[in-house]
Write a structure and sequence with these properties.
The chain has helices at about 10-40, 60-65, 80-85, 155-170, 205-225; strands at about 45-50, 90-100, 105-110, 115-120, 125-130, 135, 150, 175-180, 185-190, 195-200, 235, 245-250, 255. It is α/β, with parallel strands linked by helices.
């Protein structure tokens, strides 16, 4: 029996090189086929399914607003770009985009829930429940009696928190806050639906609440001395250290000690 001769090294190298080239060629062919398939019209995005609680958008309006901004097929569409396109639609706060084989998108939407108008009169800005400012057609706002809030850029969360803390205090006296303003100097100002203006002064939330509580606990007693109710207020200034000043309709300006 003859003993098998060892394969020469150069032959081994040729065989290995040939096998590697074959694998590389196969991968290239497969990649080319997949690339062609991914660009096939069969996989072009043809439908958008919308889920989530939406009141201002539907699949029809979304296709009209977003479809022109989308490029690619089921395989090549960039989901980050699609997400930004959906979130650029009015009223949309957040969008989560998924592919649905072979040619559809499923979009879960979260819309802004307006809790207040934001900014100066005439601006089409709203504030959502997270204190985020967004722009929308004010004619589409369905909620009645939303307050107006205003403040420096980047302070919307703080202003909303202050309003939510002050509202129940004023409600106890049947005084409705129509507008709350944080000025550029850090002063808080309330305008009631009766057109009364109340200067709350500056400071953090606990300080402003303490002054407001002191005022609201005694305002009925003070106004009753002059035959008036709290809704007769024209103005109040709570920036005094030991009291506040008020002005009533038909009564001269009063300066009262809050402890009385």
């Amino acid at each position: 029996m003859k003993k098998a001769l060892p394969v020469p090294l150069d032959v081994k190298l040729i065989n290995i090189t040939a096998s590697a080239l074959f694998v590389v060629f196969g991968v290239m062919v497969l990649g080319a086929l997949l690339s062609l398939a991914s660009r096939s019209p069969v996989f072009a995005i043809r439908g958008i399914a919308v889920i989530g609680e939406v009141e201002h958008n539907n699949a029809v309006t979304l296709r009209a607003n977003v479809a022109p901004k989308l490029s690619g097929t089921f395989f090549t569409l960039d989901l980050s770009t699609a997400k930004r396109a959906f979130e650029g639609v009015p009223w949309v706060r957040q969008a989560v985009v998924h592919r649905e084989f072979p040619n559809r998108l499923k979009v879960q939407l979260e819309e802004h829930k307006p809790v207040a108008y934001w900014g100066s009169d005439g601006e089409s800005l709203l504030l959502n429940s997270f204190g985020e400012v967004f722009e929308a057609n004010l004619g589409e706002v369905e909620q009645d009696g939303l307050p107006s809030l205003d403040g420096p850029q980047g302070q919307s969360v703080q202003v909303l928190e202050m309003y939510q803390s002050l509202k129940p205090l004023f409600d106890t006296k049947s005084l409705t806050i129509e507008k709350l303003i944080l000025t550029g100097h850090g002063d808080w100002r309330v305008a009631l639906d009766s057109d009364a203006v109340i200067e709350l002064g500056s400071g953090a939330l606990p300080e402003v609440l303490a002054r407001s509580q002191r005022f609201l606990k005694t305002v009925t007693q003070v106004t009753s001395r002059y035959g008036r109710q709290p809704d007769a207020l024209e103005a109040a200034d709570l920036r005094h250290e030991d009291g506040y000043a008020i002005r009533l309709r038909g009564v001269t300006t009063l300066a009262m000690d809050a402890q009385k």
